[in-house]
Structure to design on (115 residues):
């Protein structure tokens, strides 16, 4: 079973994405903040990271950069999400999803990264 780590501060969005992914037989771990994410990552490595860009204690662009510079996580796909669709630097992310997103498109993009 593929595992996905989600970093999203909005409870509703985080719970919706978790529900969708679990219903598609993914194992999911969610984190509401960059700090909570940092505490978990050294111990476990998922198959994909799904990161919101705007977080209360950091940002997904910075997290993505850190992941891509780290030897143990650099090959793992990173998908960024943001309501600010004008983001032009993705800091090495493998894909970008604008919010609000279409549920089917979100699932397709995640699947594409995990092939």
């Amino acid at each position: 079973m593929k595992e996905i780590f989600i970093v999203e501060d909005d409870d509703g969005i985080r719970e919706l994405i978790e529900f969708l992914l679990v219903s598609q037989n993914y194992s999911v771990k969610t984190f509401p903040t960059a700090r909570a994410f940092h505490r978990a990552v050294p111990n476990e490595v998922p198959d994909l990271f799904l990161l919101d860009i705007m977080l209360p204690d950091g940002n997904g662009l910075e997290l993505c950069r850190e992941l891509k510079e780290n030897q143990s996580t650099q090959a793992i796909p990173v998908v960024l999400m943001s309501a600010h669709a004008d983001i032009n630097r993705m800091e090495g992310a493998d894909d970008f999803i604008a919010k609000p997103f279409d549920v089917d498109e979100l699932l397709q993009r995640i699947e594409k990264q995990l092939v």
Observations:
- The chain has a mean pLDDT of 91.
- The chain is about 35% helix and 25% strand.
- The helical segments are 11-23, 34-40, 60-69, 103-114.
